[in-house]
Amino acid sequence: MANPNPVIPEKFIESQFERLDQTVEPLSPKPLQVRVPVSVYEKVEQLGKDKTPWLRRVITEAAERELLSRMDSEPDA
Predict the structure, then answer these.
(1) Which of 4, 40, 46, 50 could form a disulfide with 36 if both were Cys (CB 3.0 to 4.6 A apart)?
(2) Which domain of life is it from (predicted)?
């Protein structure tokens, strides 16, 4: 018979998905997903284990540069 009240230890949950980068800010509840040209996809896939930290860094830097800085400079409507 299966356990009707399963409990997953907190330590297991914490180690289940170890972060591969040095960021400390909490991550969004849902991932961003986008299709890219095949040539870009192939290059990014070659990063292997470094793919996720690289994508997170590149997207964050672009958002800070192109979106967040623009929001800071726009006057309140």
Answers:
(1) 40
(2) Bacteria
